[in-house]
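User: Could you check the structure of this?
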Amino acid sequence: MASAVLLLNLGTPAEPTAKGLRQYYRHFFSDPFVFDFNPLGRWLLRNAIILPFRAPRVAKDYEAIWMPEGSPLKVYADRMQGAVQAAFDAAGDEVLVRNAMNYSAPLLGDVMAELEASVIQDVLLLPMFPQYSTATTASVFHGVERAASSWRQSPRLRFVPDLFQEPSFVRSWARLIQRHVDAQDCDELIFSYHGVPEKTIRKADSAGVCQFGTCCDRVTEQNRRCYRMQCVQTTKAIVAELGWNEDRCSIAFQSRFGPLPWIQPYLDEHLMSLLESGKKRVAVVTPSFISDCLETVHEIGVEYREQFIEAGGESFQLVPNLNDDEDWFDAVYQIARDHLEAGDRG
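Assistant: Sure, the predicted structure tokens are below.
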């Protein structure tokens, strides 16, 4: 095998218990890419609040979404790895496809050691984060580079920083929405993205162009790595593929944490504003995720749904994520193959 494709994720708890959550959070809340503040603050947050209090509470929510085979993220990641590997095998390509995660098995360091033992010298890094963020993409890239630095012969690393402009990614989401949402029964299609603190956006804005507004309306050299811009452009691309009127679609951000201001509008507040404007039938899609998880199934599908209905909403539909959708698996294979071939030509 001459080449490998790494399908990269941050990770997931090994079991839906307080012990499983503590093991996972111990790594997650130690990552300076995810929690960009002083080490003492991270230590206090992790050990004084998260491990003793949050882990037992959140374990109950994880138990509610747990699949018979395990965590949804891990289950769908394994299915994707198998499908993409089978596609390369069927095409007669000598490409090794592996999952790798920062905080849970299969651990990134272990997978990189396997690639070195297999005499792999060409590694395509394909993060399963559609939009680039320092908290996710940069974290897994750093992990790969750190692992590769110990190889006796340095591998060739090819980085795919985001997926939001990949035509097959956009088509996969559009087809999924078409199968699940009846445009006639929906007043508003909401694109909900995982939020990040405003300071994270500003820190990455080396050109000083960020205004948290119209600066996200197009892709430029100055904002190319802006997470908020990529979320806006993801929405525009999917809506265009659907052929829907943009006036019936909107963007919001979820899962804020702590006292700092995060990018807006916040999903909970946005839902209430839609009700005030007379829009009582909504569907929510979450294209910053590729598989169902706590933030989608529980936070949106349970908590926000209850808030919306109790406040007077008539219908609230959470569209399932890409998960193990065949179009999506084909898209990942296509994206990986295209980037491998482009690198060979280069």
